[in-house]
Amino acid sequence: MNNLQLVWRNIRQQFGSTLLSILLTAFGVAILCVIYITSDSLEKQLTNNSKNIDLVVGAKGSPLQLILSSLYHIDNPTGNIALSEARKLATNPFIELAVPISLGDNFKGHRLIGTEISYFQLYDLKLAQGMVWKKAFEAVIGADVARKRGLKVGDSFHTAHGLSADGHVHDEHPFRVVGVLNKSNSVVDNLILCNLESVWDVHGIAHEDHNHDDHDHDHDGHDHDHDHDHAHTETNVKQEVAAAVTTPVAQDSNQAVANKPVNAHNHDSEGHDDHDHAHDSTATTTAEESSPGAARQAMMEARNAQQQENLIAPAQEAQAADETLVKNIGDDMIEDRGEEVTALLIKYSSPAAIGVIPRLVNQSTDMQAASPAIESTRLFSLLGVGLDSLTALAFIIMLIAGLSVFISLYNALKDRKYDLAIMRSLGASKGKLFSLVILEGFIITLLGGIIGLLLGHIALYLINQQTSESADFIEALVINEKEFLLVAVACAIGIFAALIPAIKAYKTSISTILADK
Protein backbone atom coordinates (compact mmCIF):
# COMPACT_ATOMS: atom_id res chain seq x y z
CA MET A 1 0.00 0.00 0.00
CA ASN A 2 1.55 3.32 -1.06
CA ASN A 3 1.60 6.57 0.88
CA LEU A 4 -1.40 8.16 -0.92
CA GLN A 5 -3.62 5.19 -0.10
CA LEU A 6 -2.58 5.33 3.52
CA VAL A 7 -3.22 9.08 3.70
CA TRP A 8 -6.63 8.76 2.08
CA ARG A 9 -7.61 6.02 4.57
CA ASN A 10 -6.52 8.24 7.44
CA ILE A 11 -8.56 11.17 6.07
CA ARG A 12 -11.67 9.00 5.85
CA GLN A 13 -11.25 7.84 9.41
CA GLN A 14 -11.18 11.48 10.63
CA PHE A 15 -13.70 12.80 8.10
CA GLY A 16 -15.45 15.33 10.36
CA SER A 17 -12.37 17.21 11.52
CA THR A 18 -10.76 16.89 8.08
CA LEU A 19 -13.84 18.39 6.39
CA LEU A 20 -13.74 21.35 8.77
CA SER A 21 -10.09 21.99 7.91
CA ILE A 22 -10.84 21.79 4.18
CA LEU A 23 -13.76 24.23 4.40
CA LEU A 24 -11.82 26.77 6.46
CA THR A 25 -8.97 26.67 3.96
CA ALA A 26 -11.43 26.98 1.06
CA PHE A 27 -13.14 30.05 2.55
CA GLY A 28 -9.83 31.80 3.11
CA VAL A 29 -8.61 31.11 -0.42
CA ALA A 30 -11.97 32.14 -1.91
CA ILE A 31 -11.95 35.52 -0.17
CA LEU A 32 -8.37 36.19 -1.22
CA CYS A 33 -9.21 35.14 -4.79
CA VAL A 34 -12.16 37.55 -5.00
CA ILE A 35 -10.14 40.42 -3.52
CA TYR A 36 -7.12 39.86 -5.74
CA ILE A 37 -8.99 39.48 -9.04
CA THR A 38 -11.38 42.37 -8.32
CA SER A 39 -8.65 44.81 -7.30
CA ASP A 40 -6.42 43.76 -10.21
CA SER A 41 -9.23 44.12 -12.75
CA LEU A 42 -10.28 47.45 -11.27
CA GLU A 43 -6.74 48.78 -11.41
CA LYS A 44 -6.37 47.73 -15.05
CA GLN A 45 -9.68 49.34 -15.95
CA LEU A 46 -8.76 52.58 -14.22
CA THR A 47 -5.53 52.66 -16.18
CA ASN A 48 -7.03 51.74 -19.56
CA ASN A 49 -10.02 54.07 -19.26
CA SER A 50 -8.10 57.19 -18.26
CA LYS A 51 -4.65 56.79 -19.82
CA ASN A 52 -5.17 59.61 -22.39
CA ILE A 53 -7.62 61.74 -20.39
CA ASP A 54 -6.16 64.38 -18.10
CA LEU A 55 -9.34 66.19 -17.05
CA VAL A 56 -13.12 65.78 -17.11
CA VAL A 57 -15.33 68.87 -17.14
CA GLY A 58 -19.00 68.59 -16.23
CA ALA A 59 -21.81 70.05 -14.16
CA LYS A 60 -21.06 71.02 -10.58
CA GLY A 61 -21.50 68.29 -8.02
CA SER A 62 -19.36 65.43 -6.78
CA PRO A 63 -16.04 65.19 -8.68
CA LEU A 64 -15.88 61.46 -8.01
CA GLN A 65 -19.39 60.99 -9.38
CA LEU A 66 -18.41 62.94 -12.49
CA ILE A 67 -15.41 60.64 -13.07
CA LEU A 68 -17.39 57.46 -12.41
CA SER A 69 -20.21 58.47 -14.78
CA SER A 70 -18.15 59.96 -17.61
CA LEU A 71 -15.11 57.64 -17.67
CA TYR A 72 -16.18 54.36 -16.06
CA HIS A 73 -19.93 54.62 -16.72
CA ILE A 74 -20.93 53.11 -13.37
CA ASP A 75 -22.83 56.09 -11.89
CA ASN A 76 -25.39 58.72 -12.86
CA PRO A 77 -24.16 62.03 -14.35
CA THR A 78 -24.06 65.20 -12.24
CA GLY A 79 -26.01 67.11 -14.90
CA ASN A 80 -25.45 68.86 -18.22
CA ILE A 81 -23.22 71.72 -19.35
CA ALA A 82 -23.67 74.21 -22.18
CA LEU A 83 -22.02 73.04 -25.39
CA SER A 84 -21.07 76.63 -26.21
CA GLU A 85 -19.11 76.88 -22.95
CA ALA A 86 -17.44 73.56 -23.66
CA ARG A 87 -16.45 74.69 -27.17
CA LYS A 88 -15.08 77.93 -25.76
CA LEU A 89 -12.97 76.04 -23.23
CA ALA A 90 -11.68 73.71 -25.94
CA THR A 91 -10.00 76.64 -27.72
CA ASN A 92 -7.59 77.14 -24.81
CA PRO A 93 -3.98 76.67 -26.01
CA PHE A 94 -3.23 74.37 -23.05
CA ILE A 95 -5.79 71.85 -24.38
CA GLU A 96 -4.75 69.51 -27.17
CA LEU A 97 -8.00 67.57 -27.48
CA ALA A 98 -11.49 68.12 -26.03
CA VAL A 99 -14.21 65.57 -26.73
CA PRO A 100 -17.85 66.19 -25.67
CA ILE A 101 -20.03 63.26 -24.64
CA SER A 102 -23.76 63.09 -24.03
CA LEU A 103 -25.48 60.37 -22.00
CA GLY A 104 -29.14 59.54 -21.59
CA ASP A 105 -30.10 56.16 -23.10
CA ASN A 106 -29.04 52.52 -23.06
CA PHE A 107 -29.60 49.25 -24.89
CA LYS A 108 -30.09 46.32 -22.51
CA GLY A 109 -27.74 47.94 -19.99
CA HIS A 110 -25.11 49.08 -22.52
CA ARG A 111 -24.90 52.86 -22.39
CA LEU A 112 -25.43 54.94 -25.52
CA ILE A 113 -22.73 57.62 -25.81
CA GLY A 114 -23.27 60.58 -28.09
CA THR A 115 -19.87 61.96 -29.03
CA GLU A 116 -17.59 62.97 -31.90
CA ILE A 117 -15.06 61.11 -34.05
CA SER A 118 -12.24 62.43 -31.86
CA TYR A 119 -13.46 60.03 -29.15
CA PHE A 120 -11.68 57.26 -31.10
CA GLN A 121 -8.39 59.10 -30.69
CA LEU A 122 -8.70 59.26 -26.91
CA TYR A 123 -8.98 55.49 -26.54
CA ASP A 124 -6.98 54.44 -29.62
CA LEU A 125 -10.02 52.63 -30.99
CA LYS A 126 -9.88 50.58 -34.18
CA LEU A 127 -12.74 49.21 -36.25
CA ALA A 128 -12.97 45.45 -36.69
CA GLN A 129 -15.91 45.69 -39.10
CA GLY A 130 -17.86 48.36 -40.93
CA MET A 131 -17.28 52.10 -40.74
CA VAL A 132 -17.81 55.16 -38.54
CA TRP A 133 -21.23 56.82 -38.46
CA LYS A 134 -22.03 59.45 -41.10
CA LYS A 135 -25.46 60.62 -39.93
CA ALA A 136 -27.82 60.41 -37.00
CA PHE A 137 -29.05 57.04 -35.69
CA GLU A 138 -25.99 55.19 -36.97
CA ALA A 139 -24.03 53.47 -34.21
CA VAL A 140 -20.64 51.86 -33.65
CA ILE A 141 -20.74 49.16 -30.97
CA GLY A 142 -18.06 47.74 -28.70
CA ALA A 143 -16.68 44.23 -29.05
CA ASP A 144 -18.48 42.89 -25.96
CA VAL A 145 -21.78 44.45 -27.05
CA ALA A 146 -21.56 42.60 -30.35
CA ARG A 147 -20.62 39.34 -28.61
CA LYS A 148 -23.25 39.46 -25.85
CA ARG A 149 -26.16 40.78 -27.92
CA GLY A 150 -25.36 39.03 -31.19
CA LEU A 151 -25.33 42.29 -33.14
CA LYS A 152 -23.52 42.76 -36.44
CA VAL A 153 -23.20 45.43 -39.09
CA GLY A 154 -26.61 46.20 -40.60
CA ASP A 155 -28.66 45.16 -37.56
CA SER A 156 -31.10 47.57 -35.90
CA PHE A 157 -31.98 48.07 -32.23
CA HIS A 158 -34.05 50.42 -30.05
CA THR A 159 -32.64 52.21 -27.03
CA ALA A 160 -34.39 52.67 -23.69
CA HIS A 161 -34.63 55.99 -21.89
CA GLY A 162 -32.33 56.47 -18.92
CA LEU A 163 -29.37 54.42 -17.78
CA SER A 164 -31.26 51.28 -16.71
CA ALA A 165 -32.45 48.54 -19.04
CA ASP A 166 -36.09 48.77 -17.87
CA GLY A 167 -36.63 52.35 -19.09
CA HIS A 168 -39.10 53.53 -21.74
CA VAL A 169 -38.13 52.16 -25.16
CA HIS A 170 -37.87 54.68 -28.02
CA ASP A 171 -39.65 52.59 -30.65
CA GLU A 172 -39.89 55.52 -33.07
CA HIS A 173 -36.10 55.97 -33.34
CA PRO A 174 -34.29 52.76 -34.36
CA PHE A 175 -30.48 52.76 -34.45
CA ARG A 176 -28.55 50.90 -37.14
CA VAL A 177 -25.18 49.26 -36.51
CA VAL A 178 -22.61 50.53 -39.01
CA GLY A 179 -19.41 49.41 -37.27
CA VAL A 180 -17.96 47.06 -34.65
CA LEU A 181 -14.84 47.96 -32.65
CA ASN A 182 -11.84 45.78 -31.91
CA LYS A 183 -11.53 44.71 -28.28
CA SER A 184 -9.71 47.45 -26.35
CA ASN A 185 -9.85 45.97 -22.81
CA SER A 186 -11.54 49.15 -21.65
CA VAL A 187 -15.06 50.24 -20.79
CA VAL A 188 -15.63 51.09 -24.47
CA ASP A 189 -16.01 47.36 -25.16
CA ASN A 190 -19.41 47.59 -23.43
CA LEU A 191 -20.53 50.92 -24.94
CA ILE A 192 -22.51 52.04 -28.00
CA LEU A 193 -21.18 55.13 -29.77
CA CYS A 194 -23.08 57.57 -32.01
CA ASN A 195 -23.03 61.28 -32.83
CA LEU A 196 -24.41 63.98 -30.52
CA GLU A 197 -27.36 64.72 -32.80
CA SER A 198 -28.69 61.19 -32.34
CA VAL A 199 -29.02 61.64 -28.58
CA TRP A 200 -30.67 65.02 -29.01
CA ASP A 201 -33.10 63.79 -31.69
CA VAL A 202 -34.19 60.79 -29.63
CA HIS A 203 -35.39 63.14 -26.91
CA GLY A 204 -36.81 65.76 -29.26
CA ILE A 205 -34.31 68.43 -28.22
CA ALA A 206 -33.76 71.32 -30.63
CA HIS A 207 -30.27 71.89 -31.93
CA GLU A 208 -28.46 73.50 -34.82
CA ASP A 209 -27.86 71.77 -38.17
CA HIS A 210 -30.82 69.47 -37.70
CA ASN A 211 -31.17 67.82 -41.11
CA HIS A 212 -32.77 64.47 -40.31
CA ASP A 213 -35.83 64.61 -42.54
CA ASP A 214 -36.84 61.04 -41.87
CA HIS A 215 -38.18 62.00 -38.48
CA ASP A 216 -39.88 65.28 -39.32
CA HIS A 217 -43.27 63.66 -39.70
CA ASP A 218 -43.23 62.24 -36.21
CA HIS A 219 -42.10 65.50 -34.68
CA ASP A 220 -44.79 67.45 -36.59
CA GLY A 221 -47.48 65.12 -35.40
CA HIS A 222 -46.29 65.50 -31.85
CA ASP A 223 -46.28 69.28 -32.15
CA HIS A 224 -49.80 69.26 -33.60
CA ASP A 225 -51.12 67.25 -30.67
CA HIS A 226 -49.31 69.48 -28.26
CA ASP A 227 -50.75 72.65 -29.84
CA HIS A 228 -54.24 71.19 -29.85
CA ASP A 229 -54.03 70.33 -26.15
CA HIS A 230 -52.56 73.72 -25.38
CA ALA A 231 -55.35 75.56 -27.24
CA HIS A 232 -58.00 73.50 -25.51
CA THR A 233 -56.47 74.20 -22.11
CA GLU A 234 -56.16 77.91 -22.90
CA THR A 235 -59.88 78.12 -23.83
CA ASN A 236 -60.91 76.44 -20.59
CA VAL A 237 -58.72 78.73 -18.54
CA LYS A 238 -60.19 81.83 -20.19
CA GLN A 239 -63.74 80.62 -19.57
CA GLU A 240 -62.97 79.97 -15.90
CA VAL A 241 -61.40 83.41 -15.49
CA ALA A 242 -64.34 85.12 -17.17
CA ALA A 243 -66.82 83.25 -14.97
CA ALA A 244 -64.86 84.07 -11.84
CA VAL A 245 -64.64 87.76 -12.73
CA THR A 246 -68.25 88.15 -13.91
CA THR A 247 -69.98 87.16 -10.68
CA PRO A 248 -68.44 89.70 -8.30
CA VAL A 249 -68.51 92.39 -11.00
CA ALA A 250 -72.23 91.96 -11.52
CA GLN A 251 -72.97 92.22 -7.81
CA ASP A 252 -70.85 95.31 -7.34
CA SER A 253 -72.31 96.95 -10.43
CA ASN A 254 -75.92 96.44 -9.29
CA GLN A 255 -75.17 98.01 -5.96
CA ALA A 256 -73.27 100.92 -7.51
CA VAL A 257 -76.00 101.73 -10.05
CA ALA A 258 -78.73 101.61 -7.43
CA ASN A 259 -76.91 104.27 -5.40
CA LYS A 260 -76.08 106.55 -8.33
CA PRO A 261 -78.21 108.76 -10.60
CA VAL A 262 -79.36 107.30 -13.85
CA ASN A 263 -77.56 109.81 -15.95
CA ALA A 264 -74.23 109.46 -14.08
CA HIS A 265 -71.29 109.65 -16.42
CA ASN A 266 -68.98 106.58 -16.39
CA HIS A 267 -65.37 107.71 -16.84
CA ASP A 268 -64.18 104.13 -17.25
CA SER A 269 -66.19 103.79 -20.48
CA GLU A 270 -64.30 106.59 -22.22
CA GLY A 271 -62.05 105.48 -25.04
CA HIS A 272 -64.09 102.39 -26.01
CA ASP A 273 -64.89 101.48 -29.58
CA ASP A 274 -67.90 102.62 -31.63
CA HIS A 275 -69.82 99.47 -30.81
CA ASP A 276 -69.84 100.35 -27.13
CA HIS A 277 -71.05 103.92 -27.83
CA ALA A 278 -73.77 102.66 -30.11
CA HIS A 279 -74.89 100.26 -27.45
CA ASP A 280 -75.07 103.06 -24.86
CA SER A 281 -77.01 105.32 -27.25
CA THR A 282 -79.58 102.63 -27.96
CA ALA A 283 -80.02 101.95 -24.25
CA THR A 284 -80.48 105.70 -23.58
CA THR A 285 -83.06 106.11 -26.35
CA THR A 286 -85.02 103.14 -25.10
CA ALA A 287 -84.95 104.53 -21.56
CA GLU A 288 -86.30 107.93 -22.73
CA GLU A 289 -89.19 106.35 -24.72
CA SER A 290 -90.20 103.94 -21.93
CA SER A 291 -91.37 104.48 -18.41
CA PRO A 292 -88.86 105.75 -15.79
CA GLY A 293 -88.62 102.32 -14.12
CA ALA A 294 -88.01 100.51 -17.37
CA ALA A 295 -85.48 103.14 -18.40
CA ARG A 296 -83.61 102.75 -15.14
CA GLN A 297 -83.54 98.96 -15.47
CA ALA A 298 -82.32 99.11 -19.06
CA MET A 299 -79.64 101.61 -18.12
CA MET A 300 -78.43 99.35 -15.25
CA GLU A 301 -78.22 96.32 -17.55
CA ALA A 302 -76.27 98.29 -20.14
CA ARG A 303 -73.81 99.62 -17.59
CA ASN A 304 -73.36 96.15 -16.05
CA ALA A 305 -72.56 94.64 -19.42
CA GLN A 306 -70.13 97.44 -20.22
CA GLN A 307 -68.31 97.16 -16.85
CA GLN A 308 -68.04 93.39 -17.26
CA GLU A 309 -66.42 93.85 -20.66
CA ASN A 310 -64.08 96.48 -19.20
CA LEU A 311 -62.88 94.09 -16.48
CA ILE A 312 -62.84 90.85 -18.47
CA ALA A 313 -60.84 92.28 -21.37
CA PRO A 314 -57.79 93.25 -19.24
CA ALA A 315 -57.91 89.88 -17.47
CA GLN A 316 -57.94 88.07 -20.78
CA GLU A 317 -55.11 90.22 -22.09
CA ALA A 318 -53.05 89.52 -18.95
CA GLN A 319 -53.75 85.81 -19.24
CA ALA A 320 -52.68 85.83 -22.88
CA ALA A 321 -49.53 87.76 -21.98
CA ASP A 322 -48.66 85.25 -19.23
CA GLU A 323 -49.18 82.32 -21.57
CA THR A 324 -47.02 83.99 -24.21
CA LEU A 325 -44.30 84.59 -21.61
CA VAL A 326 -44.41 80.98 -20.39
CA LYS A 327 -44.32 79.71 -23.96
CA ASN A 328 -41.31 81.90 -24.76
CA ILE A 329 -39.48 80.72 -21.64
CA GLY A 330 -40.23 77.09 -22.53
CA ASP A 331 -38.95 77.62 -26.07
CA ASP A 332 -35.78 79.19 -24.71
CA MET A 333 -35.24 76.27 -22.33
CA ILE A 334 -35.70 73.74 -25.13
CA GLU A 335 -33.32 75.69 -27.32
CA ASP A 336 -30.72 75.81 -24.55
CA ARG A 337 -31.06 72.09 -23.86
CA GLY A 338 -30.30 71.43 -27.50
CA GLU A 339 -26.87 72.88 -26.94
CA GLU A 340 -25.96 70.85 -23.84
CA VAL A 341 -23.76 67.83 -23.27
CA THR A 342 -22.99 65.71 -20.23
CA ALA A 343 -19.23 66.17 -19.99
CA LEU A 344 -16.07 67.21 -21.80
CA LEU A 345 -13.07 64.86 -21.88
CA ILE A 346 -9.82 66.82 -22.09
CA LYS A 347 -6.25 65.93 -23.00
CA TYR A 348 -3.60 68.49 -22.12
CA SER A 349 -1.10 69.84 -24.62
CA SER A 350 1.40 70.73 -21.89
CA PRO A 351 2.08 69.61 -18.30
CA ALA A 352 1.71 73.26 -17.26
CA ALA A 353 -2.03 72.94 -17.86
CA ILE A 354 -2.40 70.91 -14.65
CA GLY A 355 -2.22 74.08 -12.57
CA VAL A 356 -4.14 76.32 -14.97
CA ILE A 357 -7.16 74.60 -16.55
CA PRO A 358 -8.80 73.11 -13.40
CA ARG A 359 -8.59 76.45 -11.57
CA LEU A 360 -9.91 78.31 -14.62
CA VAL A 361 -12.93 76.01 -14.91
CA ASN A 362 -13.79 75.90 -11.20
CA GLN A 363 -13.43 79.63 -10.56
CA SER A 364 -14.52 81.26 -13.82
CA THR A 365 -17.37 79.07 -15.09
CA ASP A 366 -20.49 77.30 -13.89
CA MET A 367 -18.80 73.98 -14.57
CA GLN A 368 -16.46 71.84 -12.49
CA ALA A 369 -13.20 70.13 -13.38
CA ALA A 370 -12.26 66.70 -12.01
CA SER A 371 -8.90 64.97 -12.42
CA PRO A 372 -9.12 61.21 -13.13
CA ALA A 373 -5.75 60.60 -11.45
CA ILE A 374 -6.74 62.39 -8.23
CA GLU A 375 -10.22 60.90 -8.04
CA SER A 376 -8.96 57.38 -8.85
CA THR A 377 -6.43 57.64 -6.04
CA ARG A 378 -9.18 58.87 -3.76
CA LEU A 379 -11.39 55.97 -4.81
CA PHE A 380 -8.64 53.46 -4.06
CA SER A 381 -8.05 55.06 -0.68
CA LEU A 382 -11.74 54.66 0.13
CA LEU A 383 -11.79 51.06 -1.08
CA GLY A 384 -8.40 50.28 0.39
CA VAL A 385 -9.64 50.16 3.98
CA GLY A 386 -12.29 47.60 3.12
CA LEU A 387 -9.98 45.54 0.92
CA ASP A 388 -7.25 45.50 3.55
CA SER A 389 -9.75 44.42 6.17
CA LEU A 390 -11.04 41.59 4.00
CA THR A 391 -7.51 40.50 3.18
CA ALA A 392 -6.62 40.37 6.86
CA LEU A 393 -9.81 38.41 7.55
CA ALA A 394 -8.94 35.92 4.81
CA PHE A 395 -5.46 35.31 6.21
CA ILE A 396 -6.90 34.88 9.72
CA ILE A 397 -9.31 32.27 8.36
CA MET A 398 -6.44 30.44 6.67
CA LEU A 399 -4.42 30.50 9.91
CA ILE A 400 -7.42 29.07 11.72
CA ALA A 401 -7.56 26.39 9.02
CA GLY A 402 -3.90 25.61 9.68
CA LEU A 403 -4.63 25.37 13.39
CA SER A 404 -7.51 23.03 12.61
CA VAL A 405 -5.18 20.83 10.53
CA PHE A 406 -2.70 20.74 13.40
CA ILE A 407 -5.34 19.73 15.95
CA SER A 408 -6.81 17.13 13.61
CA LEU A 409 -3.44 15.49 12.89
CA TYR A 410 -2.28 15.67 16.50
CA ASN A 411 -5.42 13.99 17.80
CA ALA A 412 -5.33 11.42 15.00
CA LEU A 413 -1.75 10.61 15.88
CA LYS A 414 -2.80 9.61 19.38
CA ASP A 415 -5.37 7.21 17.97
CA ARG A 416 -2.98 5.79 15.36
CA LYS A 417 0.17 5.38 17.42
CA TYR A 418 -0.34 1.57 17.64
CA ASP A 419 -0.68 1.42 13.80
CA LEU A 420 2.51 3.42 13.45
CA ALA A 421 4.34 1.07 15.80
CA ILE A 422 3.16 -1.95 13.75
CA MET A 423 4.39 -0.24 10.59
CA ARG A 424 7.76 0.32 12.18
CA SER A 425 7.94 -3.30 13.25
CA LEU A 426 7.15 -4.38 9.68
CA GLY A 427 10.08 -2.40 8.32
CA ALA A 428 8.78 1.15 7.79
CA SER A 429 11.41 3.75 8.49
CA LYS A 430 11.00 6.84 10.68
CA GLY A 431 11.24 8.98 7.56
CA LYS A 432 8.25 7.25 6.03
CA LEU A 433 6.12 7.94 9.11
CA PHE A 434 7.24 11.57 9.02
CA SER A 435 6.38 11.91 5.34
CA LEU A 436 2.94 10.33 5.82
CA VAL A 437 1.88 12.98 8.34
CA ILE A 438 3.32 15.83 6.24
CA LEU A 439 1.59 14.48 3.13
CA GLU A 440 -1.72 14.30 4.96
CA GLY A 441 -1.50 17.97 6.00
CA PHE A 442 -0.51 18.92 2.44
CA ILE A 443 -3.44 17.06 0.82
CA ILE A 444 -6.00 18.54 3.24
CA THR A 445 -4.95 22.11 2.47
CA LEU A 446 -4.52 21.37 -1.26
CA LEU A 447 -8.11 20.20 -1.47
CA GLY A 448 -9.18 23.29 0.47
CA GLY A 449 -7.22 25.55 -1.91
CA ILE A 450 -8.73 24.03 -5.05
CA ILE A 451 -12.25 24.23 -3.66
CA GLY A 452 -11.52 27.82 -2.59
CA LEU A 453 -10.57 28.81 -6.15
CA LEU A 454 -13.81 27.32 -7.46
CA LEU A 455 -15.87 29.16 -4.82
CA GLY A 456 -14.02 32.40 -5.56
CA HIS A 457 -14.75 32.29 -9.29
CA ILE A 458 -18.37 31.39 -8.66
CA ALA A 459 -18.65 34.42 -6.37
CA LEU A 460 -16.99 36.62 -9.02
CA TYR A 461 -19.42 35.37 -11.64
CA LEU A 462 -22.41 36.19 -9.42
CA ILE A 463 -20.98 39.63 -8.64
CA ASN A 464 -20.43 40.27 -12.33
CA GLN A 465 -24.04 39.38 -13.07
CA GLN A 466 -25.27 42.00 -10.60
CA THR A 467 -23.24 44.86 -12.08
CA SER A 468 -24.32 46.95 -15.06
CA GLU A 469 -23.22 45.99 -18.56
CA SER A 470 -21.02 49.09 -18.73
CA ALA A 471 -19.14 47.96 -15.60
CA ASP A 472 -18.69 44.38 -16.78
CA PHE A 473 -14.91 44.20 -16.51
CA ILE A 474 -14.34 41.18 -14.21
CA GLU A 475 -13.36 38.06 -16.14
CA ALA A 476 -14.77 35.51 -13.73
CA LEU A 477 -14.13 32.47 -15.92
CA VAL A 478 -10.46 33.18 -16.61
CA ILE A 479 -7.77 31.64 -14.37
CA ASN A 480 -4.92 33.96 -13.48
CA GLU A 481 -1.49 32.42 -13.01
CA LYS A 482 -1.05 34.25 -9.72
CA GLU A 483 -4.05 32.45 -8.27
CA PHE A 484 -1.95 29.31 -7.92
CA LEU A 485 0.19 31.28 -5.49
CA LEU A 486 -2.81 31.33 -3.14
CA VAL A 487 -3.02 27.53 -3.29
CA ALA A 488 0.71 27.31 -2.66
CA VAL A 489 0.35 29.52 0.44
CA ALA A 490 -2.49 27.33 1.70
CA CYS A 491 -0.40 24.18 1.18
CA ALA A 492 2.53 25.77 2.99
CA ILE A 493 0.29 26.48 5.97
CA GLY A 494 -0.85 22.85 5.93
CA ILE A 495 2.73 21.55 5.85
CA PHE A 496 3.74 23.87 8.66
CA ALA A 497 0.74 22.76 10.75
CA ALA A 498 1.70 19.10 10.23
CA LEU A 499 5.30 19.54 11.34
CA ILE A 500 4.79 18.94 15.07
CA PRO A 501 2.60 15.83 14.60
CA ALA A 502 5.11 14.52 12.01
CA ILE A 503 8.02 14.99 14.38
CA LYS A 504 6.10 13.16 17.06
CA ALA A 505 5.41 10.27 14.64
CA TYR A 506 9.10 10.21 13.75
CA LYS A 507 9.98 9.74 17.41
CA THR A 508 7.54 6.89 17.93
CA SER A 509 8.96 4.18 20.27
CA ILE A 510 7.99 0.70 19.07
CA SER A 511 8.83 -1.15 22.28
CA THR A 512 6.99 1.28 24.57
CA ILE A 513 3.79 1.38 22.50
CA LEU A 514 3.64 -2.39 21.95
CA ALA A 515 4.41 -3.06 25.61
CA ASP A 516 1.58 -0.77 26.72
CA LYS A 517 -0.78 -2.44 24.26
TrEMBL record:
Biased composition (Low complexity): 281-295
Residues spanning the membrane: 20-39, 390-413, 433-464, 484-503
Compositionally biased intervals (Basic and acidic residues): 265-280
Gene Ontology MF annotations: transmembrane transporter activity
Subcellular localization: Cell membrane
Region (Disordered): 211-236, 261-304
Family: Belongs to the ABC-4 integral membrane protein family.
PANTHER family, A to Z: ABC TRANSPORTER PERMEASE YTRF, MEMBRANE COMPONENT OF TRANSPORTER-RELATED
Protein name: Putative ABC transport system permease protein
Protein's organism: Sphingobacterium psychroaquaticum
